[in-house]
């Protein structure tokens, strides 16, 4: 049995191209008990994994620049219901993320490695980010609005309606260097587990059986109780103006959103793939398909994503075992690498003092892996 990867190449930054081993007859075999497909275990009591990590998969030579051989995927904590919306505070040195279904926002302190409740109740917060002033911005499913936490601890509502029509359930957020905040507004907060349903017949209450007031009487007191807008992407201007960037429809719903490093392009999950458009002032132009998110003929459904300093798009992948995790797409829309996880990954962010770690919110667990590249700021 021989390795097809040299130690020198590994230490220079190479990860693994599957298959990683071949036998004397040249037929591929897999390292036992190392891959999620071969019973890999995670957590503090799990045995150490081999370098390079067999679940970090290179699909293009350029991926040597973004992965390092001496890094292994680590499960930081499990036991969540639906982990989502991670963001890195460079000033505070912590990761904030949401458990949408548990209605709790958590914080991971970098120095101690501890996770604790940050905000409970979070009003089913989903996406989070930090603006260029270091202020946390949060999308709240339950109250169907986007808010900003000020440095003095007060809270400002940035958007809860468009021309008098209530928002649906803001989902993911991206700050622009011009001070604007862009966010997606799909339907998902109208589910019982992620917010509250609309009264009567509605998309997530098709028979009208769900009662939005059971369990929390504040439904509709602050924030809308009825979704009336098409799923859309919005731009909030520092003047307070809210503009529609693009409108969707049933089956074509926006989700994750992120800018290119120079802010000339915006990427957004659009239906079953990811679209990209040119940013022209306060609007977009030339919207086109960036990727259908298919790898090896398998669909890796996109959710939240972030962009690194080279312009690669790191996207959470909703797929079948072996393709759950993270997909990495170069600026041309070609998949150059994957991170396999044992769970569906909803969202990611770059974190750590150098922003060279990838934090992955994957269903019931959160994971970390160190990279060979930094994330574009702010995280």
- Whole-number average pLDDT? 90
Q: Please state the oligomeric state of the protein chains shown.
A: single chain
Number of domains: 2
What distance lies between the first and last C-alpha atoms, to the nearest angstrom?
43 Å
Structural class: mainly beta
Approximate strand percentage: 35-45%
> What CATH architecture of the largest domain would you give?
6 Propeller
* Estimated radius of gyration: 21 Å
Looking at the structure, the CATH topology of the largest domain is Neuraminidase
Q: Largest beta sheet: what is the strand line-up?
A: 4-29-28-27-26
The percent of residues in helical segments reads under 10%
Counted by DSSP, the helix tally is: 1
Main sheet makeup: 5 strands, antiparallel
CATH superfamily of the largest domain: TolB, C-terminal domain
As residue ranges, the low-confidence spans are 1-23, 28-33
CATH class descriptor name of the largest domain: Mainly Beta
Description:
The chain has about 375 residues and is mainly beta. It folds into two domains: about 1-70, no CATH class; about 75-370, TolB, C-terminal domain (Neuraminidase), CATH 2.120.10. The chain is built from one helix and 32 strands. The chain has one helix spanning about 5-10, and strands spanning about 1-5, 20, 30, 55-60, 75-80, 85-90, 95-100, 105-110, 115-120, 125-130, 135-140, 145-150, 155-160, 160, 165, 175, 180-185, 230-235, 240-245, 255-260, 265-270, 275-280, 285-290, 295, 300, 300-305, 315-320, 325-330, 335-340, 345-350, 355-360, 365-370. The strands form nine sheets. Strands 4-29-28-27-26 form a five-stranded antiparallel β-sheet, with no helix packed on it. Strands 5-32-31-30 form a four-stranded antiparallel β-sheet, with no helix packed on it. It is globular. The relative contact order is 0.14.
């Amino acid at each position: 049995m021989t390795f097809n990867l040299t130690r020198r190449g590994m230490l220079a930054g190479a990860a693994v191209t599957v298959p990683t081993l071949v036998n004397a007859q040249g037929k591929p075999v897999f390292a036992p008990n190392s891959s999620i497909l071969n019973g890999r275990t995670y957590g503090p009591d799990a045995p150490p994994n081999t370098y390079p990590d067999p679940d970090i998969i290179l699909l293009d030579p350029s991926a040597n620049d973004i992965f390092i051989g001496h890094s292994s995927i680590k499960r930081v904590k499990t036991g969540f219901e639906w982990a989502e919306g991670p963001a890195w505070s460079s000033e505070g040195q912590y990761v904030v993320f949401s458990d949408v279904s548990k209605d709790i926002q958590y914080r991971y302190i970098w120095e101690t490695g501890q996770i604790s409740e940050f905000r409970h109740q979070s009003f089913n917060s989903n996406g989070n980010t930090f603006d260029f002033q270091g202020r946390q911005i949060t999308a709240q499913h339950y109250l169907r609005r986007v808010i900003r936490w000020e440095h003095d601890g007060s809270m400002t509502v940035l958007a809860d309606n468009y021309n008098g029509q209530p928002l649906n359930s803001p989902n993911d957020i991206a700050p622009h260097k011009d001070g604007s905040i862009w966010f997606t507004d799909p339907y998902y907060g109208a589910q019982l587990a992620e917010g509250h349903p609309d009264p009567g017949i509605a998309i997530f209450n098709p028979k009208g059986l769900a009662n939005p007031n059971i369990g929390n009487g504040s439904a509709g007191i602050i924030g809308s109780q009825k979704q009336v807008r098409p799923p859309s992407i919005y731009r909030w201007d520092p003047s307070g103006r809210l503009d529609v960037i693009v409108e969707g429809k049933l089956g074509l719903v926006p989700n994750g959103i992120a800018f290119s490093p120079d802010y000339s392009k915006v990427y957004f999950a659009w239906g079953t793939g990811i679209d990209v458009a040119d940013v022209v002032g306060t609007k977009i132009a030339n919207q086109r398909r960036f990727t259908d998110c298919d790898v090896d003929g398998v669909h890796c459904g996109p959710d939240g994503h972030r962009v690194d300093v080279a312009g690669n798009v790191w996207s959470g992948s909703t797929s079948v075992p072996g393709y759950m995790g993270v997909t990495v797409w170069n600026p041309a829309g070609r998949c150059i690498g994957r991170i396999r996880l044992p769970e569906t990954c909803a969202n990611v962010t770059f974190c750590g003092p150098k922003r060279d770690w990838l934090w992955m919110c994957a269903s019931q667990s959160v994971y970390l892996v160190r990279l060979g590249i930094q994330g574009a700021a702010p995280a």
